[in-house]
């Protein structure tokens, strides 16, 4: 989810090849052993416009102010190189990119809001492996650890991120929270539980500001909770196995993760409004009760994009109105600080075009995005991005929390088959919040997983 969560807007399909993704340590692929589409040699992806025409076409899903800021971030590069970049926005990106590729009218570069489509094209030999035109090791060093794994197919990487969404955040109303003396840096979730959540609950206030309402996409907020808990309890390797269906959705570890989430948010006294309130309140309004006097709830787990949904008065004075912390590690779980997120991933269809390669090199570098960052609403996936470009202390802190993470993992439901990721995972989480047992929920999702 970048900006307004894409899956909240685009409940349509994303075909994924998550099962082909390779888990384990990220390493520089053997450039002579994979080739486009995972085949032998280094075949060149032949899509896009004519090579060396000084025009590079890009198709992406973001428009409006985001499109304006994207183009502003390219202006100096265009002037310096003489390359004209033609960006087209399409809210139905997933459908449009498939149509264009199948008809031989692909753009030079696609900006994928989820990795599934990119992996599908990688399998078809339509996307150029990044190690043929990017300095892979340098890119790996500057990116938040684990980001490239989202674009890995049969051991080779076919895309690189050009912006990030960071989801492993807990928000609170700064004045009320700090006045009460609650810790802002819990070392573990268990410390957050005893030092903050239990103490809030003892005052008669609901600890969690929780809301899942999102029209036909209601339920996606719950999937993020489960994904976070899978990372917290078991780490990236088991998480990858789960997303790729190398372990079933109703594996006992998944059931345990869901049960732990239930202990946190499912009780009537834990989430403001109880389960019915959670399901019937728009996700963007989740934190509104926290700004009442006195607050009705104090904690919200949600991504960095949520600031655009906060009340206008809060947005105008963000640094003084809200605080944020990283979702803390689970005691006895993964040894490290895992974080969950998303991002727009750039993939090169025109593998033999030097102009398109230059644009890819810039788009996926830590030099891209200064203008967008200054305008707000954008995060670089690079640890080495100049944080002075961010417009406020809150965004600077979020960028630092992401950079300090032990490992990053892409939103799991965005990488699962659409029948699950934007289908039963959403709908069954709604039933779960309404009282359906965890085992029945996990069993139903598992039975919906495509057989091939």
TrEMBL record:
InterPro entries: Bact_solute-bd_prot1
Keywords: Signal, Transport
Gene3D superfamilies, sorted: Periplasmic binding protein-like II
Superkingdom of source: Bacteria
Entry annotated with the keyword S-adenosyl-L-methionine: no
Family under the similarity heading: Belongs to the bacterial solute-binding protein 1 family.
Protein name per its UniProtKB record: Sugar ABC transporter substrate-binding protein
Organism: Intrasporangium oryzae NRRL B-24470
């Amino acid at each position: 989810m970048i900006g307004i969560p894409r899956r909240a807007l685009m409940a349509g399909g994303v075909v994924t090849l998550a099962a082909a993704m390779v888990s384990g340590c990220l390493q520089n692929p053997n450039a002579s052993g994979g080739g486009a589409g995972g085949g032998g040699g280094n075949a060149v992806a032949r899509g896009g416009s004519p090579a060396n025409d000084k025009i590079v076409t890009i198709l992406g899903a973001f428009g409006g102010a985001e499109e304006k800021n994207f183009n502003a971030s390219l202006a100096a590069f265009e002037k310096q190189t003489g390359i004209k970049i033609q960006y087209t926005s399409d809210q139905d990106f997933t459908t449009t990119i498939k149509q264009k590729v199948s008809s031989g009218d692909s753009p030079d570069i696609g900006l994928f809001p989820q990795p599934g489509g990119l992996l599908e094209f990688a399998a078809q030999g339509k996307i150029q492996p990044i190690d043929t035109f990017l300095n892979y090791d340098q890119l790996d060093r500057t990116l938040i650890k684990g980001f490239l794994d989202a674009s890995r197919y049969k051991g080779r990487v076919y895309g690189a991120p050009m912006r990030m969404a960071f989801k492993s955040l807990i928000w609170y109303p700064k004045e009320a929270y700090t006045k009460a003396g609650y810790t802002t840096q819990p070392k573990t979730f268990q410390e957050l539980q005893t030092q903050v959540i239990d103490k809030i609950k003892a005052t008669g206030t609901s600890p969690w500001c929780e809301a899942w309402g999102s029209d036909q996409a209601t339920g996606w907020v719950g999937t993020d909770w489960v994904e976070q808990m899978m990372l917290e309890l078991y780490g990236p390797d088991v998480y990858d196995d789960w997303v790729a269906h190398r372990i079933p959705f109703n594996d006992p570890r998944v059931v345990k993760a869901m049960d732990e989430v239930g202990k946190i948010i499912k009780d009537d006294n834990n989430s403001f409004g109880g389960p019915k309130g959670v399901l019937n309140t728009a996700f963007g309004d989740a934190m509104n009760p926290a700004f009442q006097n006195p607050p009705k709830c104090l904690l919200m787990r949600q991504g960095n994009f949520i600031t655009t949904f906060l009340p206008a008065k809060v947005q105008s004075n963000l640094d003084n109105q809200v605080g944020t912390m990283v979702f803390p590690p689970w005691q006895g779980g993964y040894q490290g600080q895992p974080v969950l997120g998303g991002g727009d991933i750039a993939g090169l269809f025109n593998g033999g075009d030097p102009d398109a390669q230059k644009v890819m090199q810039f788009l996926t570098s830590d030099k891209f995005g200064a203008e967008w960052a200054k305008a707000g609403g954008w995060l670089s996936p690079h640890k080495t991005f100049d944080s002075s470009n961010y417009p406020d202390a809150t965004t600077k802190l979020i960028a630092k929390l992401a950079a300090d993470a032990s490992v990053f993992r892409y939103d799991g439901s965005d990488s699962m088959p659409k029948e699950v990721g934007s289908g039963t995972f959403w709908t069954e989480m709604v039933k779960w919040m309404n009282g359906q047992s965890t085992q029945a929920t996990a069993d139903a999702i598992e039975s919906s997983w495509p057989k091939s």
